[in-house]
Amino acid sequence: MSDILMVSSAPPTSCESNTYLLFHGETLLSNGVRASLYTVALVYCFIGLSAITARFFKSMEEIMKHSREVVTIDPHTKAPVVKQEKVWNYTIADIALLAFGTSFPQISLATIDAIRNLGQLTAGGLGPGTLVGSAAFDLFPIHAVCVVMPRPGSKKKISDLGVWLVELCWSFWAYIWLYVILEVWTPQVITLWEALLTVLQYGLLLLHAYAQDKRWPYVSIPFLRGERPEDWVPPEDASVDYDSIHDTNEALPITVQNNEYSKVPDTEGSSTMDHLVKDTQEDMSWPSIWRQQFIDALESPQSKKMDSVCLRLTRIFWNAIIAPWKFLFAFVPPYHIAHGWIAFICSLTFISGVAYGVTKLTDQISCVTGVSPYVIAFTALAAGTSWPDLVASKIAAERQVTADSAIANITCSNSVNIYVGIGIPWLINTAYNFFVYQEPLYIDNAAGLSFSLLVFFATSFGCITVLVLRRIIIGAELGGPRLWAWVTSVYFMILWVVFVVFSSLGVSGII
């Protein structure tokens, strides 16, 4: 067993000068040129992640719109009453759909890294480094973007502080738990039971958040819930932000909203609208919608006559850049099918594929520049794989009337990063090592990773403190006076720079 340990835990082969990404001819170029080309390709992948995340967000909205009809009898008039009830709970949707979906690049990256390292008694550092860096990117730059998203002067606050506090506590506990199992419980070693407990805590998070949303006694914080919109995204905003063919149905007035009642039979106006909706759905069948996705991807939108020449050229250039991504993602089925589930799953598949490309590019950048892979993971890789988190939170901050989902996506994504993103890969590796070698999983550079966690704790305290002060002084976490919104945004970015600098120095052994 000692021989197996020596062979299996050997460090991976160092980067060789003849490694290349696609073509062997890349090695003929200088390292500076190669680094520049790989960086441009990396930025292009970030653009692709942004594009597919927008489609993923639409599919999730369709899932959230799914409701069922409940027919009851009015006790006074004895007439049938139809009530539309949402299938999904908003809190669970934020954790299970929004946070999990936007964290899927990190989860898939770490899982691929774990499968690639099967048989090695030492875990790969790519996944944990990226996930810790992603937590910092979620907490600081995404908050920095969201705080300036509301219109000038408008304010958006968290309507359910109890749910946010539960999610925040589980988020911080996730990183405390990670530090405990790395440095206190079994230093620099992860056992099968530790990995299993890490994954199970995601289920406890879902249960506790649901209990808080429903105000279960003894396990919920007795905070009153503020006004919360019935629709996850207001229908009147949907037609403004998206200009695709999908908005035809979304822009139609809705006669029966969640928790609003309508008597049966319908009034003349409601009956007319029902026929209109039915006729529109028949005309816009999903094959025609899917075909239109490819047409929209190949056609450039017409610029308005009032646009300047410079703006037109910029728009043409941007459309040319994003056209390949639009055509590729047009293969995602329309989100009208199966209440959006097929588009949701396909979007996650594309996100995983682009994230894998990001991983390969960062490997090459690390190879030709000599920068530590942990430093690349904390910066470029964390930012690239967290791009869906940024886009989803930005859209939620713009379109929702409250700040719940925008901020919940940040805190919940950090929890998902640990409980699922690190838990599942470690569970795969520890289970393999336990049944094959009867050995635990050894963590390389655990001291550097633990130091990064301590830096994250210190800087995150400064972030949450400012959010609380904004709630007390301004009355909202997002928006408010434009000057103070931008000051807050810059402050959050400074915290991110502090985390990146100190964490990079720590994992490099400089401090």
TrEMBL record:
It is a multi-pass membrane protein. Pfam families: Na_Ca_ex. It is found in: Endomembrane system. GO terms for cellular component: endomembrane system. Residues 38-210, 340-504 form the Sodium/calcium exchanger membrane region domain. The lineage of its organism: Eukaryota, Viridiplantae, Streptophyta, Embryophyta, Tracheophyta. The chain crosses the membrane at residues 35-57, 161-180, 192-211, 313-332, 338-358, 365-384, 446-469, 490-510. The keyword Zinc-finger does not apply. It comes from Urochloa decumbens. Keywords: Ion transport, Membrane, Transmembrane, Transmembrane helix, Transport. Its main location: membrane. This is Sodium/calcium exchanger membrane region domain-containing protein. The keyword Coiled coil does not apply. GO terms for biological process: monoatomic ion transport.
